[in-house]
């Protein structure tokens, strides 16, 4: 910086000196030997014409362009298709976990072919079926609750996020209908059972295809609940929950005529099976078929007809052979 000021003063001094000597020639002359300008750097005038700054020559101004994008919503689970199974009459949740929602809206829809029916939008439910509702669980689970699921609820559901493009999670719901069967003490299925008065009624309820048991197995005699009945006495219910199935046994000791009627095994309110029980007084065991629940008794009139037919056959046979009804 000081060297530049020195040369500036030298230029001013030289100009004043030429003016003072009365030189008016405008012819450009080559500088004389020993002229102080001969020692100027070649790039002096370029540097002289530039602004006087102390900015280092090797410093460069770098401009970096940066762009910031807002986070994009995404599903927390690493899949876009889910299969869920539940048994008939149970409550089921369909889960939809979304991260970085950023003000976007989550909706649940029911798909039937090409048609989509809106169920929920945000935390509001728009379905006319009161069994459907939305429950949000922190931090990111938008759960669709279906109560008392029935066979009409089976099919595809979609969880949609209102991003661009929209995010879609497909959930397929399968309704499993358990199979119920009532067996007797021999393990035979029958719609009717006969017991002698004073004997023990024993019925077995076998329920298969139960993925997630959600209710108790109950026994009813007509409308009366037997599981916790203490008024009669002698009633016992034992239930075993096994993988994928259940077995419940009903015992009624010292059976009497009042124990006659319909006996129903129930899982929930919609899964039922019924058998008819007859309690008989004064009947011989031969008159009751426990295996198939049918009853047969030979009547006297039937025996008389059978006897007369035999006599007629014998007499007719002798008449044809001898020509005389009693032979010769």
Automatic annotation (TrEMBL):
Pfam families per UniProt = Ig_3, V-set
Ig-like domain ranges (all copies): 78-163, 178-276
Q: Coiled-coil segments, which residues?
A: none
Q: Which keywords describe this protein according to UniProt?
A: Receptor, Signal
Q: Which InterPro entries does the record cross-reference, listed alphabetically?
A: Ig-like_dom, Ig-like_dom_sf, Ig-like_fold, Ig_sub, Ig_sub2, Ig_V-set, Zig-8
The transmembrane residues are: none
GO CC terms on record? neuron projection membrane
A biological process from GO: synapse organization
Q: Which residues form the signal peptide?
A: 1-22
- Give yes or no: UniProt keyword Signal: yes
**Lineage, opening ranks:** Eukaryota, Metazoa, Ecdysozoa, Arthropoda, Hexapoda
Per its record, how is this protein called by name?
Fibroblast growth factor receptor 4
Please give the PANTHER family that the UniProt record associates with this protein.
DEFECTIVE PROBOSCIS EXTENSION RESPONSE 14, ISOFORM A-RELATED, DEFECTIVE PROBOSCIS EXTENSION RESPONSE DPR -RELATED
């Amino acid at each position: 910086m000081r060297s530049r000021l020195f040369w500036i003063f030298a230029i001013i001094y030289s100009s004043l000196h030429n003016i003072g000597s009365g030189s008016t020639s405008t012819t450009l002359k080559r500088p004389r030997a020993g002229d102080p300008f001969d020692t100027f750097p070649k790039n002096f005038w370029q540097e002289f014409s530039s602004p006087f700054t102390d900015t280092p020559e090797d410093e460069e101004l770098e401009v970096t362009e940066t762009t910031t994008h807002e986070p994009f919503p995404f599903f927390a689970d690493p899949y876009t298709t889910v299969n869920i199974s539940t048994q008939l009459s149970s409550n089921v949740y369909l889960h939809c976990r979304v991260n970085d929602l950023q003000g976007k809206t989550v909706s649940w829809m029911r798909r039937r072919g090409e048609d989509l029916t809106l169920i929920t939008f945000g935390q509001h439910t728009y379905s006319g079926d009161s069994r459907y509702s939305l429950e949000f669980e922190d931090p990111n689970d938008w759960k669709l609750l279906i109560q008392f699921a029935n066979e009409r609820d089976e099919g595809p559901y979609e969880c949609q996020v209102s991003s661009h493009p929209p995010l879609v999670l497909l959930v397929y719901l399968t309704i499993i209908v358990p199979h119920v069967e009532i067996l007797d003490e021999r393990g035979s299925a029958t719609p009717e059972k006969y017991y002698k008065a004073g004997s023990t009624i024993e019925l077995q309820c076998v329920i298969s295809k139960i993925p997630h048991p959600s209710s108790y197995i109950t026994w009813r005699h007509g409308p009366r609940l037997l599981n916790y009945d203490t008024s009669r006495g002698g009633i016992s219910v034992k239930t075993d929950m096994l993988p994928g199935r259940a077995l419940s046994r009903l015992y009624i000791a010292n059976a009497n005529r009042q124990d006659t009627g319909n006996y129903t095994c129930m899982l929930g309110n919609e899964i039922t099976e019924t058998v008819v029980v007859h309690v008989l007084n004064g009947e011989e065991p031969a008159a009751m078929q426990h295996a198939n629940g049918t009853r047969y008794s030979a009547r006297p009139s039937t025996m008389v007809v059978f006897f007369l037919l035999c006599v007629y056959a014998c007499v007719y046979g002798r008449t044809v052979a001898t020509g005389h009804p009693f032979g010769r």
